[in-house]
User: Fold this.
Amino acid sequence: MAKKRFSFSLAALIVFFVILLSLISIRLTGLDAVFPNPVGNLLREVLAPLQSGVTSVSSGIRDAVVNIRDFSKIRQDNKSLKTQIDELTKENNQLKQKILAGMRFEELEKKFDSPAIWKSPYIGASVINRNPSNWYHTIVINRGSKDGVKVNNPVITNLGLVGKVIGVTTSTAEVILILDPEGQVSGAVRQSEGSAAYGIIVGDYKRGPIASAGSLKMTVPKDDKVNPGDMVLTSGMGGVYPKDIPVGTVQEVNLETGGLLKTATISPLVDFTHVEEVFVVLTGGK
Assistant:
């Protein structure tokens, strides 16, 4: 029991002196003191590696947080720039399309020589869809009833006849091409002598699983003078197409079985595969 009391007393005495020395050292080595601080120096020596490690870890965490924040900002900036680039690319493509369409319309202004048709009111339109289906060979244009377009309005290009309007919505119209058998045209073959041979121009577009481009046929009496190279125009009969719209040129003439009629194969002036802009003649209609 006496040894335990002595050990406890000794330990308490040692602690007391350590605290006392620390207080004296702190007092003597304050900011204004001139004495060295052995305790403070010792603590700094002991704690320096630990402090350095803590500082390094802290700096690493801080840098990682900053990098993550910067990366997130860069990613958002890149996304914003990509959106702007996509919008600019879209606007640029639209502008190019408008310029090209304008150039094509300018080319269309070089009209064929038929003053009567160009005295009628007409508007330009762009082809927005094609439908060489099992039923009809048609195109859809971006003009409709709000633009004054009606069913049976003729559709032309600067080269000649395309077809007629068969359906109208507010902003679009469906046009049946003269290549389609249902797009029949009353035609006239102008001969060098000045006389004319009249007949019905019919497209021989073949309906079926595979659409054919088609050509035009016109049957006339065998005595009518129709020769390869002759120009074929609308006759003005029938009440739909005005007179003298170019249709095509005669390629060949074949005598029908029986010898009473002959059929002229006509090559259209219009390249229907590549038609992109047309004119709608705002006459007649219903």
Residues 31-35 have pLDDT under 50 and may be disordered. The domain at 115-281 is CATH 2.40.10.350 (Thrombin, subunit H). The two ends are 128 Å apart (CA to CA).
